[in-house]
Amino acid sequence: MNTQIHAPVMLREVLEDLDPQPNGVYADGTFGRGGYTRALLDAVNCTVYAIDRDQEAVDSAKALLAAYRGRLTVLHGRFGDMLTLLRDCGIQHVNGIMLDLGVSSPQIDQPERGFSFRADGPLDMRMGLSGASAADIVNSADEAALIDIIRNLGEERFARRIAKAIVAARSDSPITRTSTLADIVRGAVPRAKDGLDPATRTFMALRLYVNDELGELDRALEAAEELLIAGGRLVVVSFHSLEDRRVKRFLQQRSDDSAGASRHVPLPETRPAPSFRLFRRRSLTPTAEETRQNPRARSARLRAAERTENPPWPTNPERTAA
Questions:
Q1: Distance in angstroms (rounded) separating the CA atoms of residues 40 and 46
Q2: CA-CA-CA-CA torsion sign (64, 70, 71, 76)
Q3: Inside any domain, residue 85
Q4: Which of 210, 240, 266 represents a domain boundary (last residue)?
Q5: Do the domain assignments include residue 2?
Q6: What is the pLDDT of residue 316?
Q7: pLDDT at res. 265
Q8: Do residues 21 and 80 share a domain?
Q9: Rg (alpha carbons) of the chain, rounded to whole number
Q10: Into how many domains does the chain fold?
Q11: How many other C-beta atoms can be found within 10 angstroms of the C-beta atom of residue 209?
């Protein structure tokens, strides 16, 4: 197992926005190899509850648990279930929540996990090693379902061609390797002028689908709204436009900076009071120096907000209002 500590993306900016306080309680919803958790624990005398659905990540925490005995708890589970996981530990509220979305560097770097097409491995992509794998989806979903997954989650304009090629290829033999799927996609679509590998968007789409990452994010954002105390901080680092747009929409909707709202037009009386205050209207991006040192940081976007004293919004505010 790779136990190397990977440098967390935009660590300085994350800590500045979280502003950890002595004796505070914090949740790291995406523990990975513990980079953000370690930084939090080193910053002040606080307590951290870290969550990860990957058992390998949980197992890798032994050294950190020993080093920060009594201040760190690592929980095996999905960050979308954060509310239940923390309440089961007797934690009703926290001072801050950190979410680092997407696949972790150790997962990408292990070919046997099947997340990357850069090295051949089994077509898996499961973060939690349970449920349907990417190979299960590729070999069982009908063409229309594959088009939907690749187009909507991968934002791939050649989704129809790719799905057709997958269905044709699997009629000869099951698609079980990352290299096999990547070659099928490369044969179905032209190479992009920007040099992006043609398989990139399809692999991204399957990973998001297999792990229900957007659904997990929606549930985690609502859990954060419930768990954070007034003045508590939520910081989210995303690497995919679909994720970033979801975070942006959630925070804008629940703040005074609601998308599409005019300051000259009163808001409806049925609109709940703002539950968050945005730190900034635009996302933060890594510095040129950080991107140079860590190319994987180049697509990162950081958004942060502070919890107000107002109650959480209904789970589905638009439907509830209707």
A1: 8
A2: positive
A3: yes
A4: 210
A5: no
A6: 63
A7: 47
A8: yes
A9: 21
A10: 2
A11: 23
Mean pLDDT (whole number) for 47-73: 93
Check whether residue 89 and residue 17 sit in a common domain. yes
Q: CA separation (Å) from 31 to 4, 34, 319, 321?
A: 14, 5, 33, 36
Domain CATH code at residue 191? 1.10.150.170
Residue 118 lies in a domain: no
Whether 279 is in a domain gets the answer yes
H/E stretch holding 307 reads: strand 301-307
pLDDT of residue 196: 84
Residue numbers of the domain that contains 247:
11-106+213-321
In a shared domain, residues 165 and 252: no
Q: Say which residues have a Cβ less than 8 Å from residue 108's Cβ, sequence separation at least 6.
A: 115, 116
Domain termination residue (choose one: 158, 193, 210): 210
Contact 78, 53 (CB under 8 A): yes
What pLDDT shows up at residue 6? Answer: 59
DSSP 57-126: HHHTTHHHHHHTTTTEEEEES-GGGHHHHHHHTT---EEEEEEE-S--HHHHH-GGG---SSS--BS---
User: What's the average model confidence in pLDDT over 117-136?
Assistant: 89
| pLDDT score of 274 more than 60 | yes
Instruction: Check pLDDT > 70 for residue 207.
Output: yes
72 and 147 inside one domain: no
Over residues 254-262, the mean pLDDT reads 63
Evaluate whether 143 touches 164 at the Cβ level (below 8 Å): yes
Across the chain, mean pLDDT equals 89
> What predicted TM-score, i.e. pTM, was given to this entire model?
0.88
Region of 131 please: left (phi>0), alpha (psi -120 to 50) or beta: left
Looking at residue 118, its pLDDT comes to 84
